[in-house]
Amino acid sequence: MSMENCRNQKGMTLMELVVATAILAILASAVLPLSQGAVRRSRELELRRNLRILRSAIDDYKMDFDRAVEEKKIIPSLTETGYPKSLEVLVEGKDWKGLYPYKRKYLRRIPKDPFDEYGEGWGLRSYREDPESTIYGGEDVYDLYSQSIKTALDGTLYKDW
């Protein structure tokens, strides 16, 4: 083969191949942190949504309790606060003795904490506990929180949401 034929052939040199690979590696390293941030942001949105769903169900349960007492459908004991005894009550439902013609259910299932890495579930607080308490007394479920010790993208702790 003559030298003229070698020069006319199309292709990439080794140097061009190395430069192209280096450029692709730089672009990939820039995109990776962005995708990790997007995954974390979506998990944060899921946590906010799940907390809102659960807290709304607890509030609905309390409103039904108050309404059933007001309409004299049930007679509460002195120690009853009107909040559910557990999160499972929100799924199983409650018969309000004629307030509804059926056993009212507040949730189809209990949403999971997306930041629960160890299977601890939600942290719970009862009505009589301090709002910042992390020790659950077990009387009722007044509030709940994530037990994750991680920091959110906005700098707050997930457990404080």
Q: What is the ordering of alpha helices and beta strands?
A: HHHEE
- Number of separate structural domains: 1
| CA(first)-CA(last) distance | 74 Å
Overall outline: elongated
- Largest sheet at a glance? 2 strands, antiparallel
Pfam family, one: N_methyl
Protein name: Type II secretion system pseudopilin PulG
GO biological process, one term: protein secretion by the type II secretion system
Keywords: Methylation
Write the layout of secondary structure elements.
Layout: H1 3-8, H2 14-70, H3 87-92, E1 123-125, E2 143-145
Antiparallel strand pairs: 1-2
Please name the defining characteristics of this protein.
3 helices, 161 residues, two-stranded antiparallel ribbon
General description of the model:
There is one protein chain. This protein has 161 residues and is mainly α. It has one domain (42-160). Helix content is 43%, strand content 4%. The chain is built from 3 helices and 2 strands; from the N terminus they run αααββ. The chain has helices spanning 3-8, 14-70, 87-92, and strands at 123-125, 143-145. It has a two-stranded antiparallel sheet. The N and C termini lie far apart (74 Å). The model has no long low-confidence stretch (mean pLDDT 90).
